[in-house]
Amino acid sequence: MSKGSINAVLFACILLLGALAAPGAKAQSGFIGNIRVEGTQRIDPSTVISYLSIKPGDPFDAVALDRSLKTLFATGLFADVALRREGSDLIVRIVENPIINRIAFEGNKRIEDDALSREVQLRPRVVYTRTKVQNDVQRMLDVYRRSGRFAATVEPKVIQLDQNRVDLIFEINEGERTEVRRISFIGNKRFSDRSLQDVISTKETAWYRFFTSDDTYDPDRLTFDRELLRRYYLRNGYADFRVLSGIAELTPDKQGFFVTFTVEEGERYKFGKVGIDAELKGLDPKVLDSQLTVKEGDWYDASKVERNIDAITERLGNLGYAFVDVQPRLNRHAEDRTVDISLVVREGPRVFVEEINIKGNIRTLDKVIRREMRLVEGDAFNTQRIRRSQQRLRDLNFFSNVTLDTVEGTAPDKSKIEIAVEERSTGELSVGFGVSTRDALLGDIRIRERNLLGRGQDLSLGFTLSARRQEIDLRFTEPYFLDRDVAAGFDLFRVTTDYQDEASYDLERTGGSLRATYSLMEDLRHTVRYTYSATTIKNVPSTASFFIRAQEGDSTSSIVGNSLAYDKRDSKIDPRDGYIVTLNNDVATLGGDTRYVRTVLQGGYYFPVGETWVLSTNAEIGNVTPYGDEDVRIADRFFLGGAKLRGFEYGGVGPRDRSTGDSLGAENYYAGSVELLFPLGLPREMGVRGGVFSDFGSAWDVAASGPNIADVNSIRASVGVSFLWESPMGPLRLDFAAPVVKEEFDETEIFRFSFGTRF
Fold first, then answer.
1. Taking the CB of residue 424, how many other CB atoms lie within 10 A of it?
2. Which of 334, 338, 371, 340 is nearest to 356 (CA)?
3. CA–CA distance, 576 with 102 (Å, rounded to integer)
4. pLDDT of residue 439
């Protein structure tokens, strides 16, 4: 066949194909006459049609039909959707997703149902979709991984019910905890692996860590550990320190992890030239010199620089400079390994607080949160005050988590503060027990609500019972009385104490007090109080001292008192740095049988010696002076010994009736202690420490005289060692003390211990 013939045949074929295709193409380009929806049960057909991108009268366009199909699937309402054409009608065939009737968890023991319910997004009466179920499965797995159970599995099961409903069951296999078998460090030369393991929060698994989850792998904790390492090295002078990597590798048996940190320490630096570069108009830089505590020649410490910045910012705020920005300018000198620090003080952006928004507080009233804020709407924006506000909110202990974020306001010079809180349980039913050398076996029970009705009020009722002491007390505190920064409250009490061993009598005291505490400064608080009590001295044997038998019977006391406390400690529970000074005054006045003025001055100073050693000094002095015709009763005198002067029994130092051995109490006393606490080489999280101490003191003066009365003001002193353990069941303390200076009539005590807990 010739070339021309072939071309003719091809042309004819093309014409034939065009003719065959034309009718079909024309049919496809027809218009939609009607839209019918099939398969609906709960959803109205008009709702389905509203999701479509086409409507009657539109052409059968493939692109528009595809878009409509995707839109219907995206609603999450349908398990299946199909579109087809019947003549000029468009048929939409759907299969609705079922409605969840009930959600249940099976197989979970370590994590409660309530905790899992808070994580899942699906709820009863919500449309079931496979995507949402898989997302919830992943959320639950994340919860288990955060608790160290990487082997956990979650299998969703669906039980079909009538009316297109389902029960959703999550079958959980929690698996074993995925422990951290080993923690290693690469590149560390200055600090040993053991030292760095104490710094980070992740711990190697050990038999004694059965009360903690720190030895389970948590990727979020590992990220936090990198920051802890960075802070530690910067605090110790390593300005160039970097964490190159932190890797967790699953062990071959998939039951644990090997954690490896690779670090680059760099050289250790000292502070070079340190100064303040003030760029604020009218500011004399010398007024800030007292806030600058870093000195040239000291080892570089980034945390000290931050504390200096906070102190300077606070000082400037007190001087009226609301808008300041303090930034450190560092200049490293590698040749002599020094860092010059210049704290640049310049005017910051003039930004005001526009709004303070609070979320997450379901039970706690907004005003309870707002009154802890150091800023209010309209104040100049201050970062240091925001940090202080966040700390005050955390100190309430009403919330498991507190975050303060700043967002842009409605204008460039306005900012909003967003407060997000997660509430925690504030009700307590605590049962405790303890053992001590003075009270022997001791038990107590206390019912307490620290956030009564969400108002921040504190109400508690407690009972204490021991071989020597029985007590019941009711306490109530309103932290902001009349919406002012005044913590007002009352106490009701009844106490019975056995003093037969020390002074041959029993003491019973019943009464109540009113009190109010307010801040004079950030760390200075003043307390005023009034106490009325009825006291009974009873069960005095005939063999007791004449001076005690003479005071047997009832008396009443009407006492007005006040206290000043200046507290700069880093912790009120376990102080390691800072100091505290307290002055207490009480005057027993009209309305009671007793007349006296009592003053007690106390102070303590805590000084860190290295990372884990703490040197503390404590001292106190007291005086009680009668006025009028009455002497100071024995119940109002001072008894020295025991915990205040180790090596001597409670009441073992001070005036004594030699003929009976009874302690008579003293009108003057002083006591002091110097103690050094240090680790014993065991892992820090075990909470075991040792100590060496020296106590000293004296007690003297009593309104009694005679040949058998021993009353001298000579100093007594002791030395000893201590063993402290923050055990899982509560704090335990053992003290072994030997008196080195004493009087022959003093009562000594070589061994003293206490142990107790509350649960």
1. 11
2. 371
3. 53
4. 56
* Least confident span in 12-16, 546-550, 710-714, 719-723: 12-16
Which spans in 107-187 are helix H? 113-119, 130-146
Contacts for 584 with CB less than 8 Å, ≥ 6 apart = 561, 562, 563, 598, 599, 600, 601, 602
CA 612 from centre of chain: 21
Most confident by average pLDDT, 389-393, 453-457, 594-598, 646-650 = 594-598
C-alpha separations of 657 from 130, 438, 654, 708 in Å: 86, 21, 10, 6
Cβ-in-10-Å burial (0-12, 13-18, 19+) of 497 comes to middle
Look at residue 19 and tell me whether its pLDDT is greater than 60.
no
Can you tell me which residue has the tokens 């999701």?
A: 51
pLDDT at 711: 93
Antiparallel, parallel or unpaired: β 751-758 and 730-741: antiparallel
User: What whole-number distance in Å separates Cα of residue 551 and Cα of residue 547?
Assistant: 7
DSSP-assigned states of every residue in 442-507: EEEEEEEEEEETTTTEEEEEEEEEESSEEEEEEEEEETTGGGSSEEEEEEEEEEEEE-HHHHS-EE
- Dihedral (CA of 407, 410, 412, 415) sign: negative
**Confidence category of residue 728, pLDDT binned at 50, 70, 90:** low
Cα–Cα distance, 702 to 666 (Å, whole number): 5
Q: Which pLDDT value is given to residue 21?
A: 40
- For the stretch 208-216, contacts whose Cβ atoms lie closer than 8 Å and that sit 24 or more positions apart, written own/partner, are 208/686, 209/685, 210/728, 211/728, 212/685, 213/147, 213/148, 213/177, 214/685, 215/148, 215/179, 215/180, 216/147, 216/148, 216/149, 216/177, 216/178, 216/179, 216/180
Give yes or no for a contact between 428 and 446, defined as CB atoms under 8 angstroms apart: yes
- Residue 188, beta-bridge partner list: none
Burial of 170 (C-beta count, 10 Å sphere; 0-12/13-18/19+): buried
Distance of CA 705 to the CA centre of its chain: 55
653 is written with which tokens?
């130092």
3-class SS letters over 326-363: EEEEEEEECCCCEEEEEEEEEECCCCEEEEEEEECCCC
CA distance between the termini of the chain: 105
What 3-state class would DSSP assign to 314? helix
Shortest CA distance to 644 belongs to which of 672, 609, 622?
672
Distance of CA 110 to the CA centre of its chain: 23
Contact present, 190 and 238 (Cβ < 8 Å)? yes
Q: Alpha-carbon distance 494 to 508, whole Å?
A: 7
